[in-house]
Every structure is written in structure tokens, then in C-alpha cells.
């Protein structure tokens, strides 16, 4: 059974000045705007993250510039091409206007609409038509024109590649192969018509891991970063294996926040209940679904996998409909996190506002003891206080530091 690419991703690199000027002025700051869906963020499986080509490119650029700033205002949403076009047309595009460099990845959500997978992840139907190719062409062309309106440069690099592999039934092979060829020919034509530069997907290369996931692999992100580096004659590309450990950790937390829609720049903002649960869901080990575990949530609900995973661990469905619309409390988040990792309990703690008859007390004390959570300067923990974005960032980062090997083991099977 052959493995085939089943989607198209577009990487657009827009340079605000000529290549020679960007790479010659090494002492100047470079403004980089990243646009795209969750594949661009570094998502590499259902609930796992690697390092995105966006961050790898930024690391490479830092070898040439004293400062590289990245704007991700249009990154991380599950954009179809039409949704992205609407956002660019109707939202503040000041970041695009001021950018020296823009990357865009789009098309994944469009084509996944025409893919049907069975429970084993095998492709059982793929029904896009030539009319869909033409529709995608029109929208991508409109996106490029909108970006072109905001920048005077013609230094645009478009990479056509389909990073998604799946087990394909024999009768689908020929039509799938032809569709991908048509999509890439379409993309190349649009790019050349705009006077931009097209990078064939062959320059990125096939993925030796033969992923069965419906989003890119880490290999794909590495190869896109290498293709970008080669196109602009930069120094050796930064890849996942060469990323510093501290950068990898910070990057994972930032990517996770992007995916669930938390803006880390709003440090004091309370974390919505739903987003907090989605963060916790990334730590839950993958388990086989069983009919013994039921939930009132529909499978299409963003929290479905998280709630099923929690219940498989023996954690009851943690919210009511009204509670879901509220914000997450510090004590409840700590309680669920401790249960997910089986942290155990600690009888005695240092927080003067935590009573031992509080069911959360022993869990809070245990996570405080191993350095994952902390209290306030007045010696309190304030478990009923809403968790802030800043506090969540610290907790997640410390969770990775303490349980890194366990998290790697859990997410590698997803």
C-alpha cells in the first residue's frame, strides 16, 4: 500500500527590501511576520508540538541580524484560504506593512475538507474536483495581491508542498497523484504570474517517517527551513536537532499557547476555563477509546478528547456548561494537573490559607514541593483566584522541566 501526499501547503516569503539589503545590514533589526494555520505553528501530531519552520527560520536569521522580531497576529487559527483572505482584508495589517519578511502557509484546511479517513487513519475517500483547484487558485491569488498591496517588494518565495501522508486504498492512488500534480502546477503558475519565485516541493523532499497524521511532521518543518536558507544563500539552517534546549522549552510553551488561543502578552488576563483544559489535554497520554467512558460532549467539541482522556484517568468531567464559560481557578488547575501526572500528595504545606480538609490541599502542596506551582509573597496560594496567563505560562514551563521525559513518552505515541 502506497503512502501519498494528501494536501497542499503554501509557504510565501515576502522580503520588504532586496535580498542584498536584508542580509547586508546585519546590525539592523529584522521584522518578521508569520501567517498561517496550526501546521505553521509547529504542530506535529494531534496534541503534540515540535519546533515550527517559523521559529527555525527566525533562529537562522539571528545569525545575520542583531534582533529578529516575530509577529504572529495572523498565525495559529485554523484558517481556510478564504478565512485568511477575509482576515487580511478586514483586520489591521500594520504588521504586514512594516515587515521585512513575511511567511505564509495556507491550503491545508481547504483540502482536508475533501478527505475522509476511517478510524485507523486510512484515507477512504478523496473527492476534490478541478473546480476546487480553480477556486483555491483564485483565493491564493487574491491573498498574494492583498499582501502585494502592503509591500513594494517582489521578493516573494512560494513553496508548494503537501506534507501529509496517509495509507491510501489502491483505487485512490492515481486520482490523488494527479490532483497533487495539478495543485502544484496551479500554484507555480499563480506565483510566476505575480512575478514571484516558486520553490518546487521537491526541494523540501519527502518525509522518511511516513507520518499517518493529518498535520506536518518535524521533518517537514526542518526541510522547509532548509529550503528557505538555501534560497537566500544564508548560513547553515537551524533544525530541530540543533535548537538549544532552553529555546526548545520556551518554544513548546509558546506554541501551545498559540494553538489554544492564549495571548501571552496579556500577562494578567485570566485564563478562560476551556483554554486551560485544552492546555491540560496536551499532557494526557493517548489511550484507546472505550465504550465504558462516556461524555455529554459531541465528538466535534474542541474539549472532547481532553474530557475523554481525563475520565479514562479517573478524573470526573470537570465542568458544568456555566462553569465552562467562566475562568479557571488556580486550585482546580493545580488539582487536575497533579492527577494527570499522578504526582501523589504531601500532607504538610507552607500556604497559610490552605486548610488540610480542603480536597485540593495535598495536591497543591505536592506540586509546590517539586517546584511546579508557587504562592504569593504574603504566604498564601489563593486557590479560588483566577489563574492568569503569566501564572499559566510559568506552570506549564515548569511542568515540562520536571516531567520532560514523561511528556516526550506520552506525546510520541500520539
TrEMBL record:
Keywords: Signal. Residues 347-410 form the SLH domain. This is S-layer homology domain-containing protein. It comes from Pontibacillus chungwhensis.
